[in-house]
Predict the structure.
Amino acid sequence: MTATIDTTERTGVRDDRRYLEELEKRVLFFDGAMGTQIHAAELTAEDYGGVALEGCNENLVLLRPEVIERIHEAYLEAGADVIETDTFQGSRLKLDEWGLGDKTLEINRAAASIARRAADRWSTPERPRFVAGSIGPTGMLPSADDPALSKITYAELTDIFYEQARGLAEGGADLFIVETMVDILELRAAITGINRLNRDLGRRIPIQAQAFFDVGGRMLLGTDIEAVMTTLEALPGVDLIGLNCGTGPEHMREPIRFLTEHSRAKISVIPNAGIPINVADKAVFPLGPEDMARDLAEFVNDFGVSTVGGCCGTTPAHIAALVATIGERAPKERIIV
Ligand SMILES: [Zn+2]
């Protein structure tokens, strides 16, 4: 018995092409930040499993699943078509930092099934809702010369991502979103790991690959948008290419324009609510829902971006504004040169 059959029987999940088919028909909206909403829930150390685990958002899927489910609900209610699992730091390498590495499969499986439950509750035949299994960076920098941060082999990294993706697939994820990646080699390792999983499961769960750019339009080690696109397009299995986190939409405009003019993949954009400013020692994200929606509407209407959503500092109000501003529309046809 394979995980495919388990998942399908338990959740009635559609076939793996459904997300991509829906993207052909209409622009889809991702949810907003998970961390911001967890912070707003004002949890105690006990909720996280004790003082030593305070701040481990991933452990909440085991200990306070209803808190996470409520956050998913709030985003679905705001109009999100796609909700992301609470697993951004759910790789074994990140969970090991909390002593939770052995729970990697359990945490990812649980996180995906919480999101699955919420998404299924909001799904209709006309408007399916999707679960994106969130896979973030491990904290290693395989491309760097740094002896500590690059001390991992490519094969080891692919195993790390394979394991996380397996938990997410078993919990019912419709797609994988590999996001906030600062190192192109790590991004590639994640895709290689997922491709191997898909092969082993006999499935073809879509992959949305997203890089993190600084205000200068580069990844941490200098990779620019052209290099990102070239690398990702050379890999099998990558369905969407995009950017998330790092900056607000304004700094993403040119790299996104480049992608929409040159890439054969569909394009995704999930910016922060601007670049945070320090107010009384607290990071405040300056971009309000309307301003963010206006910028992203331009990316959709003028450039032909397929899916938009919000990263750090965004809230259900940001997603509601996006949905209201962009509305239901087919993706703009792009001319690839
Ligand atoms: Zn972010």
Remarks:
- The domain at 3-240 is CATH 3.20.20.330 (TIM Barrel).
